[in-house]
UniProtKB/TrEMBL annotation:
Its EC number is 4.6.1.-. Belongs to the ENDOU family. Its cofactor is Mn(2+). Monomer. PANTHER family: PLACENTAL PROTEIN 11-RELATED, URIDYLATE-SPECIFIC ENDORIBONUCLEASE B. It catalyses: ribonucleotidyl-uridine-RNA = a 5'-end dephospho-uridine-RNA + a 3'-end 2',3'-cyclophospho-ribonucleotide-RNA. The keyword RNA-binding applies. It comes from Dissostichus eleginoides (Patagonian toothfish). This is Uridylate-specific endoribonuclease.
């Protein structure tokens, strides 16, 4: 690994270790991988590799925790189709601020903030740091082809969007996936693997998958499963601010991961998600 990746791996490990709200697979949640997703095109011809939902059980008591509650309140604040201008109400702005207030107090975000301050990438002042987070995640911008602000980093990554009603873009969050699947809006179509990717299993916290949402299809997406909202915001913010490469390879826990983080106008997150490169089995 190159030097900067080693340093980022070290901070990612700290973020991982501090994520006290992470769910344990098999205990707090269970998933059913079923079959491998097809990758034939056109999208209409994709076969369903999974007859049942991805999530077979989630202990919803976790959703009563402060950061989860604040996160879930944001998921209904967006119009999914790109090109449709987003109108942000005062209530929604207040919900955004409440979410940031909650996560900034978490051990995970405190570690991320300290690291970013040491690197001169974030202001020391907590209020100013929150303003920086707000700009990165919640400030609206016009996605490709749109004339008015219709998207934000948070909407794209955590909520998901549709393009032309047929293609799902973004949508890299397990909580949104679980809740949408529970409501019948998501149809899980199987896991995705290629020649180089490790075989998925029910206990890994990273999964590549295919699913349909509303009337659109996500041919291949990749998500963390079971991690807390504060962990994801912390990890992605650190990558966004400290790596201009837009792709950074890190190691933490048993995972070798590439974090893809595309910038939008240098100020906002366009998209970001994890790609599992290798899994090092824990020693028995």
């Amino acid at each position: 690994m190159i030097e900067s990746d080693r340093e980022l791996s070290s901070i990612m490990q700290e973020l991982w270790d501090s994520d006290v709200n992470r769910l344990q697979p098999g205990q707090d949640y269970r998933i059913s991988l079923q079959g491998k997703a097809a990758h034939s095109m056109p999208l209409e011809d994709l076969n369903d590799g999974a007859g049942s939902p991805l999530f077979t059980f989630v202990d919803e008591n976790i959703f009563k925790k402060e950061t989860f509650l604040a996160f879930i309140s944001l998921l209904d604040n967006y119009v999914s189709d790109t090109g449709e201008p987003e109108i942000v109400t005062p209530e929604e702005v207040a919900e955004n601020h409440k979410f940031l207030d909650c996560i900034i107090q978490s051990p995970t975000m405190k570690i991320a903030h300290k690291y970013l301050v040491e690197k001169n990438l974030s202001p020391t002042n907590e209020t100013k740091f929150k303003e920086q987070l707000y700009r990165i995640w919640f400030e609206l911008y016009a996605r490709k082809g749109a004339s008015k602000p219709d998207s934000s980093g948070f909407e794209h990554v955590f909520v998901g969007e549709t393009r032309g009603g047929r293609t799902v873009i973004g949508f890299h969050n397990w909580i949104q996936l679980y809740l949408q699947e529970k409501m019948g809006h998501v149809d899980y179509k199987g896991y995705s693997v290629d020649a180089n990717s490790p075989q998925p299993d029910e206990n890994k916290h990273i999964l590549a998958l295919q699913f349909s949402w509303k009337d659109g299809i996500k041919p291949k997406g990749s998500i963390f499963i079971g991690v807390s909202p504060e962990f994801e915001i912390a990890l992605y913010t650190v990558c966004f601010l400290s790596s201009p490469n837009e792709r950074v390879k890190v190691q933490f826990s048993f995972y070798d991961v590439e974090i893809v983080c595309h910038h939008y106008n240098e100020k906002h997150i366009g998209t970001t998600y994890p790609v599992l490169l290798k899994y090092r089995k824990p020693a028995q």
